[in-house]
Design brief:
alpha/beta; 15 helices; 3 domains
């Protein structure tokens, strides 16, 4: 049996150069020629501050997907993939992720570059190590003068749960790294930039207060749920995948898309993808997309009346008379209401 999967249906073998990110599977959605999709505010802030700040804290909606424009396509990416593409476009050649318990993984660049700046080799793009031992590698990558590099500390809110007291030394040494960081001019770039370190955390206060509060050297950026423009971008580009889209007029398409965008206010982008997937799998036509939204939000709604025997409803006066005495008129009235319901 074939199970429909929106990501598999949309997935494109996105051709990459040797320096392109190999870390994520991407969905390619064609855009109209010359169409520009505005980046989220937090992404524009990162691009603006790479020459001013060496560490960034991203918190909030860190597990969602974000539409990234590459040439004539929009690619929904998770936060790690989005940030990798964003920094790649800003001359960062080596991008490495560190996860608690899992160690380092290469997101952008080659294994030889990682070995050159860190003195450690990778195996199949990975290097497993403890939190304490990771600090030396992080320091070497951030201090390197060979290429622009970035470290992403993913799932940072889980550090205390996975590493216990080791987090105290980790926080202090990364804080010290922050104080000693300096912008560099590498290669042919005209403006100095920092080698960067990113914290991905669930809540703003997941980092120690002494680390981030009133710290002018760190940039804290909240990631909200998708706003109107992001929701409209995703919905507009994916709606043609829904049955019946081409059967309605362009004006009707715009009206339905507008209603779809309004109905998904306060939902995650991942949830919007799930609604579209649900509509495709359940063969819900585009004109009835509201049914898919309702189905997603409420789940399966059972008809409680269907659980009652039809015969019992027809014999309601008799059944009610067994429990209610001396109220014949009321029993008949209630029975009529039950039959109509």
């Amino acid at each position: 049996m074939r199970i429909y999967n929106l990501q598999r249906e949309l997935r494109d073998d996105y051709s990459t150069k040797s320096q392109e990110c190999q870390c994520v599977k991407e969905l390619k959605i064609d855009t109209a020629q010359g169409e520009i999709v505005q980046k989220p505010k937090w992404a524009r802030e990162i691009e603006r501050f790479v020459s001013i700040k060496s560490q960034f804290v991203l918190w909030g909606n860190i597990y969602d997907v974000y539409p990234y424009q590459k040439s004539d396509a929009i690619i929904p990416l998770n936060l790690t993939g989005y940030l990798t593409h964003l920094l790649s476009d800003n001359e960062y050649e080596l991008i490495v992720q560190y996860e608690p318990l899992m160690g380092f993984s290469l997101l952008k660049g080659d294994e030889e570059s990682f070995k050159t700046v860190s003195d450690h080799g990778l195996k199949d793009g990975h290097y497993q190590t403890t939190l304490i031992k990771s600090i030396d590698i992080i320091e070497k990558i951030i201090h390197n003068n060979t290429l622009y590099a970035t470290i992403i500390l993913n799932f940072s809110s889980r550090l205390s749960d996975t590493s216990g007291n080791d987090t105290h030394e980790f926080y202090y040494r990364i804080f010290r790294l922050l104080q000693n960081a300096s912008a560099k001019i590498i290669g042919e770039t005209q403006n100095p930039k920092f080698n960067l370190l990113f914290w991905f955390i669930d809540k703003e206060n997941d980092l120690p207060t002494w680390y981030s509060i009133d710290n002018p050297k760190i940039k804290t950026l909240p990631l909200p749920k998708p706003d109107f423009l992001i929701r409209k971008t995703i919905i507009s580009k994916l709606s043609p995948k829904i049955a019946g889209f081409n059967e309605v007029s362009p004006q009707k398409q715009e009206d339905i898309i507008g209603a779809f965008v309004d109905e998904t206010n306060n939902l995650f982008a991942n949830e919007i993808l799930s609604i579209i997937t649900l509509a495709i799998r359940e063969a819900i036509e585009f004109g009835k997309i509201g049914e898919a939204i309702k189905m997603y939000k409420l789940g399966i709604v059972e008809n409680e009346w269907a659980k009652i025997s039809t015969q019992k409803i027809l014999n309601a006066p008799i059944e009610l008379s067994k429990r209610v005495k001396g109220q014949t008129r009321a029993i008949n009235k209630v029975s009529e209401i039950l039959k109509r319901a």
